[in-house]
Amino acid sequence: MQKTDVTFLTATELSEQIKAREVSPVEAVEAYLARIEDLNPTLNSYITVCAKEALEEAQKAEKAIAAGRYLGPMHGIPVAVKDQWWTKGVRTTAGSNIIRDFVPEEDATVMARLKEAGAILLGKTNLTEFAMAYTYHYPFGTPTNPWDQSRMPGGSSAGSGSATAAFMCATSLGEDTGGSIRGPASYCGIAGLRPSQGRVSRYGLLGSCWSMDTIGPMSRSVKDCAMTLQAIAGHDPKDRYTWKAPVPDYVSLLDGNIKGLRVGILREQVYGDNIAPEVRNAVLTAAEVIRGQGASVKEVSLPGAVNGRAIASPITYLEGSTIHHRYVRERLSEYDHNMRITLLLGSLIPAQTYYKAQRLRAVLRQEFLDLMTTVDLLMLPTSADVAPPLVDKPGLGTKEEFKQEMFTPRRTLTSLANVVGAPALSVPCGFKDGLPVGLQIVGRPMEEETVFRLGHAYQEVTDWHTRRPPI
Question: Which entry of 182, 230, 404, 469 is 20 to 30 Å from 242 by CA?
């Protein structure tokens, strides 16, 4: 195999070849670093590239595997992670000038677990500032979409989405508060999972909303997502909000059989006026494919789902502004223009509004759990349309535009899962104007394996996820 071909393997394929010693970790890291050097100046996917460290770790992995000390599927796999959590000895910027020189002395739990599994860190990926708002001026370069460099790769896990889609890593991690894994996955044509709240430790995360932040995998296939989640999931004594539930062997459960699964097409989220017709058609076509594989597919209704964004917004804005309260007082001018607006808005939200949003959140969660006694999974679009053009001016629009964006059904497609704490996966299901369309699959809390089963079975009979961006 030629060195350049290594980068086009899926993470699971690369894992098998590393285990069989057909490809060495050093070869894999060198191939990815060459591609990063070639493409990162255009895509701005990475903030920090750990070339020297990655090669050193690859050499260690190669020697360990040769000596029979194979650690498992992630051993020798080159990964990228969102620059939002601690990496010992490697700067962690959160995409902001405010902490651009911060070098942690400790690894976040997800990093510690990746290292224990033998994964190799290629670098830290770009993101919207502190994983919030729509950044206008990115301190480390504006991330672009590998399918069309005039388009956004999504936010806030922009760099993880573009790096994975452009074959600049084998698999990656992002963070999802209101859609920040699933949105970039949809826009960039990859698979991205927001795990259940409490499935993955957030110790060491520079969060924006403690009650909704979740770290998860972003990969080129569902099987890769499952392998990546396996390495980072599980209870962590350092994060009291992680569940003590056992972590299934996700990959072993992916047999392609979905006969008997009950799948609900979420009516309010598929037939809304804001959904582009091409997106709706792609999702409904995917539903027919899934029905043909033996699953039971029917339309279901959850009226409260359209209020997901209106419930989530005051919670995320207020919690985010609370996290940043000291910097808002002392260093407000150092934030990006759009971030300043977001934080100031959050600072003005009354306590009673936050309280009401949390009560409504509990109501929606119970309605969701009741619905999930009648079906095993929900299907809906990930995004109402394909990737939009890059932000070309500061500001969040007029008052009316901002209201439409943040507090109306127009932006509720990813909000349901984060409000109720459920796992949600985005997989490619079509194209519009040469840009990927995402299908979102939502499951019951702590049932990622069922979400993976459906997503993997769909990818077994479709080729959307195998298409490469023209870069």
Answer: 182
